[in-house]
């Protein structure tokens, strides 16, 4: 019995002695890390902070310093590791809650971020983390909750373009287009260098539909640097077509085709614009090109037939329409509709 007690005492003494040595080593390396940090020797400081924590995994001061420097140097993964380990040692220490909520948000771990905002807000109801919570809800596709939290955040942060944009985008995702517009406008006004906000606003106007405002926003987006690519010209063209300005819709569809010459969708739209603008021969030429790329496109064949009828060649046109209906019987309803309209 006496021998067992003696061995136990020796073991405990050695353990305490080893712990003290580890803590002393950890603190010594921690001071070197702080010196390297102050000297702006970033990589050396990061390595020394990690070494300090390895010497003593329970050294809260080392974990805290490592986490704070990880944030300062934008090494967020190291910061998360440090604050997470600190949180495990002291799960009720609120100092880690806000830091981890912010860090997890920056790393795209949105559910983890929400968990820590909830922990923080249980203790600090007067200091809610509305912005981070709202952004996380948005990325988790919980759009009503995102709007609710971001509306609160907006009360104190009136110049945050991302905040306005996210509210607008949330309404857009819910297909509440008219409610989205004011927040897209606020975002575009708050950040006048961001062409995406304006382009998306144009698309929202188009979806309402409000083609006049959509055109104005497409043009403003281009002024702010949005690339005039094939999609840009195609979108602009549809707005003009809806307004009955077939000259402008034709012009923009031709520009779109210059950038995407093999697009049958744009080629068909160009033929439709030409047809509606009374340029039947040009429309036939473009629908012929659609058929060259897709010989089963019965609707293109049908519209060629309609174009010939518009040009006074009724027998030829009707024969082509009937052939198209044989390929696609659903076009018969289109024929009946045109007959009812006297076309």
Protein model, in words:
- The protein is mainly alpha-helical and 343 residues long.
- Among the domains are: 21-93, Serine Threonine Protein Phosphatase 5, Tetratricopeptide repeat, CATH 1.25.40.10; 227-294, Alpha Horseshoe (Serine Threonine Protein Phosphatase 5, Tetratricopeptide repeat); 296-343, no CATH class.
- It is 79% helix and 0% strand.
- It has 19 helices and no strands.
- The protein has helices spanning 2-38, 42-55, 60-72, 76-89, 95-106, 110-123, 130-139, 143-156, 161-173, 177-190, 195-207, 211-223, 230-242, 246-259, 264-276, 280-293, 298-310, 314-327, 331-340.
- Helix 9 runs antiparallel to helix 10 and helix 17 runs antiparallel to helix 18 (314-327).
- The longest helix is centred in the N-terminal third of the chain and has 37 residues, at 2-38.
- It is elongated, with a radius of gyration of 33 Å.
- This is Tetratricopeptide repeat protein.
- InterPro entries: TPR-like_helical_dom_sf, TPR_rpt.
- Residues 1-20 form the signal peptide.
- TPR repeats lie at residues 60-93, 161-194, 230-263, 298-331.
- Keywords: Repeat, Signal, TPR repeat.
User: What gap, in angstroms, lies between the N and C termini?
Assistant: 111 Å
Q: Structural class of the secondary structure composition?
A: mainly alpha
**Portion in strands:** under 5%
Shape: elongated
Low-confidence segments, ≥5 residues, pLDDT <50?
1-20, 339-343
Architecture per CATH nomenclature, i.e. the level-2 architecture of one domain: Alpha Horseshoe
Protein name: Tetratricopeptide repeat protein
Keywords: Repeat, Signal, TPR repeat
InterPro entries: TPR-like_helical_dom_sf, TPR_rpt
Organism: Lacibacter cauensis
